[in-house]
């Protein structure tokens, strides 16, 4: 029956559909503290319009949330960010950005479920936040690489000094990036994929 005035529900946009050549889809999580650049990274690298769950920050969060950088940041992720990128004609990555505020960390376990690997975004102004993040990944057995997001007012350190400060083994890749740039974010994801491949070749990836 045709109802006049009813709206047709639009189908998926052509650019949102998986390429017909895709043979494997891999779930990747992007984690880190509040304001480290997770939403920006998903948005810069995703080939589809990213899904975000940002909400306006209010005075209700004072004394509860991490307020670092709140003078310039007006919204925060409360559930997840989602994007997608094709690495090859056969391989597609699904990207899930986690909420940074500690009171939303209970959502992380669900986001980690089924993830093949992770990117840990690090802010050199707040290195201490990264320990809890990496600890949670290690507890879940999720392999990860560390990407140091470059902030204009953030101190710069040699990579090996950062590796030592973060207590990272030589096996775990660590690199600098600028998540605002698509090419830089893609380089981080490619580093993670090479790392996962090397683990698979040595039988370390289960």
Explain what the structure shows.
With 206 residues, the protein is α/β, with parallel strands linked by helices. It is 25% helix and 21% strand. It has helices spanning 38-45, 108-112, 129-140, 159-165, 182-201; strands spanning 24-31, 54-56, 75-77, 81-86, 91-97, 117-122, 144-149, 174-177. The protein has a six-stranded mixed sheet, sandwiched between helices. A two-stranded antiparallel sheet has the order 2-3. Helix 4 links the parallel strand 7 and strand 8 (174-177). Helix 1 (38-45) crosses helix 5 (182-201). The longest helix is centred in the C-terminal third of the chain and has 20 residues, at 182-201.
User: How widely separated are the two ends?
Assistant: 53 Å
Task: Please tally the helical runs, counting DSSP H or I stretches of 4 or more residues.
Answer: 5
Let me know the average pLDDT.
80
Fraction in helix: 25-40%
Widest sheet: strand ordering = 4-5-1-6-7-8
| Unreliable segments of 5+ consecutive residues | 1-14, 55-65
Basic shape: globular
The overall strand count is 8
CA gyration radius, whole angstroms: 18 Å
Q: Main beta sheet, described?
A: 6 strands, mixed
In terms of structural class, how would the helical and strand content be classed? Answer: alpha/beta
Order of helices and strands: EHEEEEHEHEHEH
The quaternary organization reads as: single chain
Beta-strand content estimate: 15-25%
């Amino acid at each position: 029956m045709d109802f006049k005035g009813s709206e047709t529900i639009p189908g998926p946009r052509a650019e949102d559909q998986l390429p017909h050549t895709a043979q494997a889809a891999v779930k990747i999580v992007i984690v880190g503290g509040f304001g480290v650049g997770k939403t920006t990274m998903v948005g810069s690298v995703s080939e589809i319009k990213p899904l975000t769950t940002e909400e306006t920050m209010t005075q209700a969060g004072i004394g509860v949330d991490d307020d670092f950088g709140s003078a310039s940041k007006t919204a925060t992720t409360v559930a997840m960010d989602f994007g997608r990128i094709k690495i090859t004609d056969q391989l597609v990555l699904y990207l899930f950005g986690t909420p940074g505020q500690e009171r939303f960390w209970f959502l992380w376990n669900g986001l980690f479920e089924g993830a093949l690997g992770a990117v840990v975004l690090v802010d050199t102004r707040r290195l201490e936040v990264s320990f809890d993040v990496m600890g949670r990944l290690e507890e879940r057995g999720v392999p990860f690489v560390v990407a140091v997001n470059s902030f204009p007012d953030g101190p710069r350190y040699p990579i090996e000094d950062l590796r030592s400060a973060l207590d990272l083994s030589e096996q775990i890749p660590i690199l600098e990036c600028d998540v605002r740039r698509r090419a830089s974010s893609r380089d981080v994801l490619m580093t993670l994929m090479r790392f996962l491949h090397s683990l698979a070749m040595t039988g370390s990836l289960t």
